[in-house]
UniProtKB/TrEMBL annotation:
Molecular-function GO terms, alphabetical: hydrolase activity; protein tyrosine kinase activity
Protein name (Swiss-Prot/TrEMBL): HAD hydrolase-like protein
Keywords for the protein's UniProt record, in alphabetical order: Hydrolase
Organism from which the protein derives: Candidatus Acutalibacter pullistercoris
InterPro entries according to UniProt: HAD-like_hydrolase_sf (IPR050155), HAD-like_sf (IPR036412), HAD_2 (IPR041492), HAD_sf (IPR023214), PGP-like_dom2 (IPR023198)
CC annotations in GO: cytosol
PANTHER family: 5'-NUCLEOTIDASE, PHOSPHOGLYCOLATE PHOSPHATASE
Domain of life: Bacteria
Signal sequence, renumbered to the chain: none
Length: 224
């Protein structure tokens, strides 16, 4: 059996903050919330957009859906290109693809996730990409991970690891019985990773690479 590596996208594989923050502000301008502080806009990175608009700005579900449509006016044209891979991630994905199955599990619409991976030249390392639908279906992180696991052939939980920068990644992965890794270089607010307590933590991509390769090597030892 080959180990399975499930990666979040925003704040884990790629720094998409610029595109997300600018597109969120673009939408908020239309709803009377100009010039929002960056620390508040950063909270849009990770959770489903409707959740962010509702919880951060008190919008109804109907208003949140209209805000999402406004957000996508900008994001689909400009925001989706405002990103870069974290240094060392491309090499890590390449190495992991040689020893296991690498999957993307993101609450971002799959069409945008695919475009980012293709644009940044790393799509070939992923055996599977699972994201939300533009219709609003499958935005919950647990649903995304479940769909990814099904696509990977339902591996045992101790053979699959969920890697992400927010509590949504850690909590959903743990609830489904996966090993969890929290990365500290992404967009989690201060203290969030301390509270959600992933099985492992990595402060840098270099630490993440060492951790995942050691974990995978350990799985190989158990088969001998």
């Amino acid at each position: 059996m080959r180990p399975c590596f499930l990666f979040d996208l925003d704040g884990t594989v790629a720094d998409n903050g610029e595109g997300i923050l600018k597109s969120a502000q673009y939408a908020l301008d239309a709803f009377g919330f100009p010039n929002q502080p960056e620390e508040k806009l950063r909270l849009f990175v990770g959770p489903p957009l409707d959740q962010s608009f509702r919880e951060l700005y008190g919008m109804s579900q109907e208003e949140a859906l209209r805000a999402i449509a406004k957000y996508r006016e900008r994001y689909s044209v400009t925001g989706v290109l405002e990103n870069h891979l974290y240094p060392g991630i491309s090499e890590l994905l390449r190495d992991l693809a040689q020893i296991g199955q690498v999957c993307l599990a993101t609450s971002k619409p799959q069409v945008f996730a695919e475009k980012i991976l293709e644009t940044r030249g790393v799509r070939q390392y992923f055996s599977l990409v699972v994201g939300a639908e533009l219709s609003g279906e499958r935005t919950d992180k647990g649903e995304v991970i479940e769909a990814a696991l099904q696509g990977l052939g339902d591996p045992p939980g101790d053979w699959a690891v969920m890697i992400g920068d927010r509590k949504f990644d850690v909590e959903a992965g743990r609830a489904l019985g996966l090993v969890t890794v929290g990365v500290d270089y992404g967009y989690a607010p201060p203290g969030e990773m301390d509270r959600c307590r992933p099985a492992y933590r990595a402060a840098t991509v270099e630490e993440l690479a060492a951790l995942l390769k050691a974990w995978a090597a350990g799985k190989g030892e158990t088969e001998r």
